[in-house]
């Protein structure tokens, strides 16, 4: 899941920042 780490973080950060 190393190569997917950055992508996963962005996908999880998107909804977090969107509220």
Automatic annotation (TrEMBL):
UniProt keywords, alphabetically: Chloroplast, Plastid
Domain of life of the native organism: Eukaryota
Protein name (record): PsbA
Organism of this sequence: Oldenlandia filicaulis
Phylogenetic classification of the source organism: Eukaryota, Viridiplantae, Streptophyta, Embryophyta, Tracheophyta
Gene name linked to the record: psbA
